Amino acid sequence: MLQNELFNNVIRDFNAGYWELYTDPDKEVWSQKFYEGIGYAKEELESTIDYFLEYLIHKEDVEIFRDNFLNYRKNNVDFKQHIRIVTKQGDYKLFRCATNDQLPVNIKSEINRIFFFEIKLEPDQDITKDNFYYKETAQMTSTGSWYVDFDKRKSYWDFETRRILEYPDDYIPSLKDSADYYAEDSRQQAADLFFNCAMVGTPFNTEIKMVTANGRIFWVRAIGKPVYNENKEIIGIRGVFQDIDDIKRKELRLQRSMDIITSQNSRLFNFAHIVSHNLRSHTSNLSLLVQLIEDIDNPEEKIELVNEVKQISHSLNTTIEHLNEIVAIHTNKDQEKKVIKFQDALNLVMSGIGQMIALSKTTIEADFNDLEEINYIPAYLESILLNLITNSIKYRHEDRDPIIHIKTYSKENNEYLEVKDNGRGIDMKLFKDKVFGMYKTFHYNKDAVGIGLFLTKNQVESLNGTISVESEVDNGTTFIIEF
């Protein structure tokens, strides 16, 4: 269907008037059906937004329509709303305004338009008495409204905003303390959004974490738009926010599950690669050497080949042991968990590698005050600490003695272990996707095998946890485990 046919169908089917908007406000076009809808002839009205706001629209609808109109013209922010327009007879008609992208069909128009669809009311229906329906809608959708007035330097909340944020009905919001309404790690995001909206009129539609009067942190979808005065100056911000905590947390859990599945697939690929490549390489070399031994008569040459067989056999045995360790992790993940004190697990690990710690002059500083214990498989926790500590010692910086900071903490009902060192660090630009790969090494240590971090990641993820790494060359590495 052609573009003009779509457009004409919309006009015919809905009997709608419309405005055409252009960069130059003097070129605005009001359609003939718009004039007819309110009973005027084209010559009787001035087709400008200023005239419309002054003489035609109901005074209670001026502010919101003006804000929506200016946002549509300046920022291409589509909108739809109900407004009341006075007719030539002096009564008001109710219209639903909608921009191009808010129509039920895509008219593929390159011109920005605002359509006006008349809403027919029952004879006894009062269009001004809609507060009850507003409250019902707000409560059913957990949507609160707010307004920030720059001139008066005040914040205004509706009843639902106070309910969602768990403040009493008589609470007066503070503009000075507005950062306190957001979770600590979301305050910069909120500040950036409000600044851009206030300074340059950039509207926002985002997901952000807020905090209630009782300290409960939850997710909301926040939408805000600048408020303009008659001179088209920004005098405030008006917006709504909706409690989406349940949906967002389910989404995050789903994403986390997908990440774990992706990681598991990666581990399976690694496992398959080791089985198909490394084992096959060892067995092929063994077969070749056995064939050579059978074909050689010189005893001395046979002895040399037998020594090579021993070396290949040792490598094959090591590879099989590593594969067995991986299999064992997923076989043993259903072992009984116990409440373990982090300090006890650390003491056990340090006693086992005491000589290594002493010879390397390593200092280990531990802080378990925030989270002293965890319900976990003891062998896994000890193995995780052992691998991360020995890793830090192996890859210590040659110009300084190693210092390892270990701490645990709780955040938003999640439990974390952090191990930070001052070692050589890892070039994350080069190795970011390979840090936890099997047989991946990033330095030239002779004893580097590339199995420790792979095993650690397997242990953590087998119990539905995650492990991440932050590192900078010459400045050390930090591993963060979320249990």
TrEMBL record:
What keywords are annotated for this sequence in UniProt? Kinase, Phosphoprotein, Transferase
Tell me the leader sequence span: none
Instruction: Specify the superkingdom.
Output: Bacteria
Domain PAC: residue ranges: 204-256
Q: Please state what class of enzyme this protein is.
A: transferase
Catalytic activity line of the entry: ATP + protein L-histidine = ADP + protein N-phospho-L-histidine
A Pfam family hit: HATPase_c
EC assignment: the record states 2.7.13.3
For the Histidine kinase domain, which residue ranges apply? 274-483
Any coiled-coil regions, as ranges: none
Name of this chain's protein: histidine kinase
Source species: Aquimarina celericrescens
